[in-house]
Records
---
Amino acid sequence: MPSDSALRIVWIYPDLLSTYGDQGNALVLEHRAQRRGIETETIHVRSADPVPETGDIYLIGGGEDRPQILAAERLRRDGGLHRAVARGAAMLAVCAGYQIMGSTFGGEEGQPVDGIGLLDISSARGPARAVGELVAEVDAALGLPTLTGFENHMGVTRLGPGVRPLSKTVKGVGNGDGFEGCYAGHVIGTYLHGPALARNPALADLLLSWRVGELAPLDDTRYEQLRQERLSTVLAS
Amino acid sequence: MTQLPLRAQLASALGRSAATLSRMTGRGDGSVIGGRVGLMLEPDLLRQLARDRKLALVSATNGKTTTTRLITSALLELGEVATNAYGANMPAGHVSALSQHKSAPYGVLEVDEKYLPEVLDTTGAGVVCLMNLSRDQMDRAAEIWLLAQKWRRALSGKPTHVIANCDDPLVTWGASTAAKVTWVAGGQRWKEDSWSCPECGGPLERKGVDWACRECTFHRPEPQWVLDDDAVIDPRGQRWLLDIQLPGLANRSNAAMALAVSEAFGLPVERALPRLREVTSVAGRYTTVERDGRHARLLLAKNPAGWLEAFDVTDPSLPIILSVNAQGPDGRDTSWLWDVDYRILRGRPVFVTGERRLDLALRLEVADVPFALCSSFSEALAMQPPGRVDVIANYTAFQLIRSEFGRAV
């Protein structure tokens, strides 16, 4: 049994949105916390169950159109995620999960569907599917190294004044406006799979540090080898 | 068989010549180029080649090639069978297979999941065998719920007899518009893509092997055939010990499907089963290759469900080599590695290679599975002590290993 002080990682609706290896984000957070002696508890919240309010880091992943619509409906009805974010919880929303965080997104036939309004963004169906490796330079205010990952989506996302772009794209499509992802407070949205936190351990540490403060350094050789291989291959192509 | 029209005869013959030329010049087995040439000369060639034959189409995410092979072996009991044995599973491959066996009264065609509606429309196949659907190469494959929906539309209003695995809810949904369905309880190990109801999106409830939607009436149909561990129970309640040579639960499931398909062709179990037992390897899968006293058994796994099946076949007492690429046919996104639970490999000597070995290396590190990184399969093999070793590789990594051994496996 994890103690009350354990870091609570909440994975939202793996039964609907976990099509692209997004489980990896939870595994990387657990692993990086545990290697620093931080106890973790990971909670898988199925879509029929209430979203707990007392989690530390919330994750939501990518998926197909129909589950995306179902997930948005259920999160709106449930309200648990809104209360958690209002309490200061950290959140990483990926791809379909990222789009849900906004005011609207494009449904199966491109029709606008209501999002849950946790980020000041709106998304719609774009003209073509964006599939491939992405490289982007992160907003200087966050002090993170280059972002790397794999995008696979048809969305175009417009950022409102209530969010800042997470990064400026060097390769790839991202939001469709030269930027990739966005953030506001402790909520981050991104189109990146890979999974995002496996490709970008500094982003994982940012989420962790928002909840537990300063972090001890880790031996990141494996992460760095993968990042270097991906970045050099993608930038050379 | 009725005679093909002249144009189709010519198209078919030229296609076969192109295939022969391709094989002779070492470019491949020729099944795709031959079919392409034929289709270019006569776009209606597949329909004409399919006419007057008794055809079975076989589709799924995993096990297509093996099940096609098993059904083919069984139907040889009835007569000559045309088949695309090498996994060229799009229309060009089907044209090539049927051209090469012009007089075969039977055909068993492996069909890519996306092409099933088109190939069914064109060939008017009498039997369709559907086994499983799960996440696979997300960067290029269609989303699986959409695939199942297309199957529904394609099967609706046709006289096709479908043999389908009712333990996979999405396959069940995809098959259930057909006029006639024989349900086979073939098992489902990978369940991560079937937690919600394909009909309404509600949560699926599972009790043992049974499943039903909590919010609508969609539920598991009563199976006529049941895979029960190492045996199959037929529609009359008779139990048949499978005793096939292909290893693992997934292949016993494939064999159960093959027996049900055989019966749809009028071939009883007692004649089909001995034929299934003769199959030992399929396009290099499950075969053992040898170099310098190292005996490596080759397993192909292309997606998370496939890795789960491959782990079931491997011998936990042996070292294991894993090879992962991310070329076009593999899918260029390696995120799926994070859907595979590698912790089962803890305690085994693990060797990692392939073009995307660094992705796999990080995945294993996070799963706390120690491993050695190798720059090539040959290096990984040379690091083994003499004796047996298991190998799991994804598609192009597997083909590369096969070609190192002259594809003679």
---
Amino acid sequence: MALLQISEPGQSAAPHQHKLAIGIDLGTTNSLVATVKSGMATVLQDEHGHALLPSVVRYMPDGTVVVGHDAQAQQSVDPANTIASAKRFMGRALSDIANRAHIPYHFVDSTEQAGLLQLKTRAGLKTPIEISAEILKTLKAHAEKSLGIPAGSDELTGAVITVPAYFDDAQRQATKDAARLAGLNVLRLLNEPTAAAVAYGLDNAAEGTFVIYDLGGGTFDVSILKLTQGVFEVLATNGDSALGGDDFDHRIYCWVLDKIREATPNFAPLSEQDTRLLLTKARQAKEWLTDNHEAQIVCRLSNGVLVDVTLSANEFVVLTEQLVQKTLSPTRKAMRDAQLNLDEIKGVVLVGGATRMPQVRLAVEAYFKQTPLTNLDPDKVVALGAAIQANTLVGNRSDHDLLLLDVTPLSLGLETMGGLVERIIPRNSTLPVARAQDFTTYKDGQTAMSIQVLQGERELVADCRSLARFELRGIPAMAAGAARIRVTFQVDADGLLSVTAREQTSGVEAHVVVKPSYGLSEEAITRMLKSSFGSAEIDKKARMIAEARVNAGAILSAVELALKHDGELITADEQQAIQAEMVKLQTLSLGEDAVAINQGVDQLNHATEAFAAARMNASVSRALSGKNLDEIKL
Amino acid sequence: MSLNYFQLFDLPETFALALSTLETPYRRIQASAHPDRFVSATPTEQRQSMQLATLANEAFLTLKNPAKRAEYLLGLKGIDSLNDSNTSMPADFLMQQMEWREALEDASMAKDTASLEGLFDEMQAEGNRLTTVLTDLIDHKKDYPAASETTRKLVFIDKVCADIQQAIERLD
């Protein structure tokens, strides 16, 4: 592991150096990586000139992993070890997966994390997180090669990774874990429709209220945004995280299967190979029907049966009408939540490969009573938007005029008596958001309370997704209803939740901070990192030291830059105190003691409290007319 | 002393407030305080940024909605308009409430989305009317007891509107 280079305070090599940051669209069907070069957002291609990397991962007999086109080509040959559409399984339990019988994989309940699934491959049990990490690693390698930086160096500052707006907390956390396994520093998780809006809005200097209709391979999102002078404000979002182009393929597949059964009454169930073959043929027929009146599906199954059927465009429309209608219900919900009439919508932007289907375009046009905008490549627009945001986040854009104000897609709440959900944060709340609510005890002398955190729109606990369950202990014994337990939900800018509970009537405080429980454990991540490095000697201790050094390096350069810009906001003595902590931390990070390095980080962080407040104050004062932040109660 | 939401946005403490007037300072604060501006900052700065951005969102949400704005503004004047002991409503409004509730239930039972939408529009119109009344009561007449009663009516209308939305959603 290379040592981090740390320059002397005040001698930063190149303060305005362009930092390298990438945007990644981690799609169900295809994934892309983009960056901003000389002010222009560009999708990076691999050495064969491909911009799109099929999101397919194959575990080979020799223990290697193949990702992309080569893996996709072998799907029908080696279906159980060639995983496509892993995104559909991210953060999901076995029971969440519809049509499991028609998916040629061996699913099992996860051994890593209760409630999550794994896939059985020849390389062992794999979580969807590990499979997605393989795709991210491949994209990272493409980007490093294309940008001319050494693989595995620290020159790539970070990445923005897009997720469907309608992804819940479990799916978002899974995506972040995958990035961590791939060795990527995640600057931010960005909602796909918001990313598309950024690319579209900046490209067209658009102002007004726009709808982003994003039908991808496996997910559907609709977001309504107000664009005002570089501010992208999401008014409402809705969707279906299990609806996409794959489902259209599946309808064709079922239709073909019916035809086969009509012709061959005693037809035996399909093998995995044949299932994959027919699904591939179905996808090709769907794509062909975008520009043609009929599609012929011809193939020979492993038992010798010849399939030769023709699907007309009209029949395809009838087969999939229900799926198209299924996208309009979330669309209407978003419009109602945003409290907008159709005539207030300035434009409707289509995103995602599945919006190429004529019946989808016609349905959108009929609902919004206007021709949708299709002047950007629906496959690339999300990655481009992510690259633009990544470039802004690392500070390459000097003009601070791009601001994204996104929302939480699903309501968050708690279980109360009788299996009912008490909503704490309603859907479509602008992020970051915090909300507190007081609860009390049910019985005399009750000293503990079980708190279940839920996400979803339904009133019954059983119909919502359980994010976490924890116990608050140490409540002083009191009469029923006398205790005051304040539960605070905080959702950060990535859309991830943390929960705090505190008993506040007594001097005794019980205090718990919970991160929802379905994320991978530290041990699991270490083990996965270890196995992904083959027999490499990376162990938990080495990883902890490496991470502590990265943290130390990050805070040292942040403080150094802050002192350089705003040092005059504090006294010379205060500056010296901070610099003393910096020197201490620099010394510590040369050593091998991760705990000591982390303590040094904490101490430096603590030493900069007043300085940070002064800087925030100065910055907000500049934004407003001389408001003093000391007066703002945080 | 901490700033109230009006002071945070540098706005006069009046009930009358155009959305565009509120949006400008809100966006300015977010442009400098949002966590996206502090991605490579120290943990302390990131925490402060999240707290300030959260506060600005809460303040914006409160001042944007007329019922919440009225409740907040009356609160600044020492009046707890939604207090339990303060829930008296005139008989005619109670009658009207029951009629609205019945209309909502009937339309839900009949799965009549058009009627629900009609009822929603009717409630919105009544909400707009009450907002105008509140401007007069708070900003001009300074009749806070009457404003409290109107605020409670507006809160009720918001609640019925939310219930109508939910009923429409269930039928969709």
---
Amino acid sequence: MILFLQQLVSGISIGAVYSLLAVGYALVYSVYNFTNWAFDAFMVTGAFAAFYAITLFALPFPVAIVLAIVLTVGVSLAVEVGAYRPLRARRAPRLFMMISAMGASMALVNLMNIAFGGAFRKFPQVVAGALVVGGVSISKMDLFAAVFSFAVLGLLWLLLERTRIGLGIRASALDTLTAGLMGVDNNGVALVIFGISGVLSAVAGIFYGAKYAVYPYLGLVTIKAMIASIIGGIGSLPGAVVGSLFLGITETLVSGYISSIYRDLFSFSILVAVLLFFPNGLLGAKTVDKL
Amino acid sequence: MGYLVTILILGCVNVIAALGLAVLTGYTGLFSMGHAGFMAVGGYAAAILFAHLKLPFALALPGGALVAGLSSFVIGYPAFRGRLRGDYFAIATLGFAEAVRLLLNTTYKYVGGSYGFTGLPQLTSLPVALAATAAALVLAHLFVTSQHGKNCVALGEDETAAEMMGVNLLRTKLAALFVSAFYAGLAGGLYAFFMAYLSPSMFGIGKSSDLLAAVVFGGMQSLVGPALAAFILVALPEALRFLLNWRLVIYGLLFVVIMVFRPQGLLGYKEMNADWLRRMLGRGPGAAGQRDGGGR
């Protein structure tokens, strides 16, 4: 029982990191109908920025988080302006958007691989120790990651539901063209959305890097977030969170009770099963193209 | 074996795999990020058929390709069945390739796990590779100009309109994916019997990106374009060895630049054949029915 609770806590903390990424995907998808494949590169940017801020410049952890977020937002906005906006302006097919996003990701990730080298780096222990509650020991870093991630998601929810900017974003998600005609600044909305993406991926990158290691290809984990957002239903923000927690918890249970080797295989099987039996995800709207 | 022969054979392998991806991405408009996975399935299946089931090379090679083609239904059927968007499929291919690699990496019985599948003879000679490439090019041309190919182009342009014209979406997509995976599997088999060993690390995301690069650079709805690009992409890194580490960075930047400035790629929507040659000679450049790929 104690082992099970331990796994559950660990699963929630990794699920929280997936949530950040999956919500980022869902947000971009809900407005622009394409998967932002460059997300992995943003995540790696955040992880490296925080890592070097702490190890090289000896900055405190909160400052490192802020610095990483600022830098990642910058990269995210640069990709939006350079790689996505010209295509949107031309109303290019979705396939071209995907290829452009893929290109941005390849260029950035491999650039960082050359600049920093492919080694696995241990993230400095910024939050040490563990809480013991009724025999269950919870790593403080895990706890911090989960609380911080959900706080970020909560702020995002407030922004979307309670502010004028959020209203603009929701209007664009319903119908970008009409929202533009009604006076919503579409390029402004894009900057906000990709800015938010930058924040989410930076935080996810820092916590993932801190949990495992910092290396140029850590962005591969974004595939888990994509699977999570499919489980929840692509384009649905609550679905992204539910799917992420589900995937995070089941994955930890599989690696705890069966074998960590089969964890990723298991996630892929879940993806196939969800596509077969719940083609629109657990909470997703119907995603069939409208005329 | 000579240096030039090595490049020619590796070029042929890349061309065949890229032709497969061209049918899927260039013609049908489906984005695959995991074609290296189908190459791995084809290569390992051919190796198993040859080494464990003692089939002759001439049967093991197409047999491996067939297994790769059939394996594509594992993701094709769930992803296409519900009329889902291309993104689901792209994610599923990525997941498939990773799952295949993981499975091969951890299975030590029969396939050698992370040590790799060793002890294969080197049977892919230059004539074999050239003959396979020629056959692949001709068959791909026949496929894309057939009714099946036209269905693929139609649904790639507009799914709803294609369906209204009576195109069976699921069947057409599955057919395109099967052909595509079969080609990748064939390339994987040729690769296996040229390198004389297989290892899961040969089929990583980098390999999938290389194939995608060939199709993007070569152009949409073209076979000769991606084939040429695939060949150049093999020969070029050999010539520009000093760029080795920068290869993927440059590919990535070129993806963006091409999509922004010239989405049709090198030879997009054009085919180099006798007809094209005649038009070029007859009316001069620019008359060859150039189309803008952007306005959909």
